[in-house]
Amino acid sequence: MAPPSDAPQGRPSIYDVARRAGVSHMTVSRVLNEHPNIRPATRQRVLQAIDELGYRRSTIARALATKRTMRIGVLVDANMEYGPSATLRALEAAARQSGYSVTTVSIDDVDSDVSGAVDFVTQGVDAFCVIAPRESSVAMLRTLNGRPPALVITSDPEESMHTVGVDQRAGTRLAMEHLIALGHRRILHLTGPLDWVDARAREQQWHASLTAAGLPIPTPAEGDWSADSGYEVGLHHPGIDDATAVFASNDQMALGLLHGLRERGLRVPADISVVGFDDIADARHYCPPLTTVRQDFAALGSTAMAQLEQAISSGGSITHHTIPTELVVRASTAPAPSGR
Question: Is 337 within a domain?
Answer without folding.
Answer: no
